[in-house]
Design goal:
The chain is α/β, with parallel strands linked by helices. It is built from nine helices and ten strands. A hairpin with a 2-residue loop joins strand 3 and strand 4. The structure holds 2'-deoxycytidine-5'-monophosphate.
Length: 229
């Protein structure tokens, strides 16, 4: 079967990465979590005191951006890739509410998007990749052979994120998470550059009432169809 590019876009916390990671493992493709890349930049900015109550110090972040090296390494235990920032594994730190609260404004900055999109194109140039994000099918790989746009109701997405964070022992409330999900939807879909939108040729999947195995089977079927064309 031919190697293809698979673009999975959609709203935050709708299970895109779970689906994408599972498919990558099953078909031996490389999985790239582009949200993790924007989260890594956000963590870097937080560590350097570039995000305060007054906003983001864009000038300083732009200057320091070339110092940020983002890579992925397969975690033998989980069978999934972990995110590294300048050689340090940051997989846990980038999933906190602190990073979730600040990531959308960072991801809306043009110079940050430009750098990340360049890196994503480089990572995916050999095909055989599954990339998940917001603008993969529209901006990063508009020629991807398979484009999926995933969505679910905001309540369902907030509940999933709440369950995930509380299972990890993080203290948070459902209402706080719902507000964050809605706010990220708003910023992600209204920003000027690379806004979250469905590509015209994307297949829409509303997984509000689907189990993970059902989504997995659905995506595998889409892959077989697209790779056989
Ligand atoms: O998928 P996620 O929740 O980890 O993404 C974190 C944030 O990064 C999200 O609020 C939007 C942004 N993002 C983006 O702007 N473009 C992408 N390709 C992926 C994520």
């Amino acid at each position: 079967m031919k190697l293809i590019t698979i673009a999975i876009d959609g709203h935050s916390s709708c299970g895109k990465s779970t689906m994408a990671k599972d498919l990558a493992k099953e078909i031996g493709y490389i999985y790239i979590d582009t949200g993790a890349m924007y989260r890594a930049v956000t963590l870097f900015a937080l560590h350097h005191g570039l995000i305060t109550d007054d906003g983001i110090n864009e000038q300083a972040l732009r200057k320091l951006l070339p110092d940020i090296m983002i890579t992925f390494q397969l975690n033998e235990q989980t069978g999934r890739p972990d995110t590294y920032l300048n050689g340090v594994c940051i997989e846990k730190e980038i999933r906190t509410m602190e990073v979730s609260k600040h990531v959308s404004p960072v991801a809306a900055l043009g110079f940050v998007r430009e750098a990340m999109v360049d890196l994503q194109r480089l990572m995916g140039e050999a095909k055989g990749v599954i990339m998940d994000g917001r603008d993969i099918g529209t901006v990063v790989f508009p020629d991807a052979e398979l484009k999926v746009f995933v969505t679910a109701s905001a309540d369902v997405r907030a509940q999933r994120r709440y369950d995930e964070l509380t299972a990890k022992g993080e203290k948070c409330t459902f209402d706080e998470i719902l507000a964050n999900v809605l706010e990220r939807d708003r910023i992600d879909s209204t920003r000027a550059i690379g806004p979250l939108r469905q590509a015209e040729d994307a297949i829409v999947l509303d997984n509000s009432n689907m189990t993970i195995p059902e989504q997995k089977a659905w995506l595998l079927e889409q892959y077989h169809r697209a790779a056989a064309e």
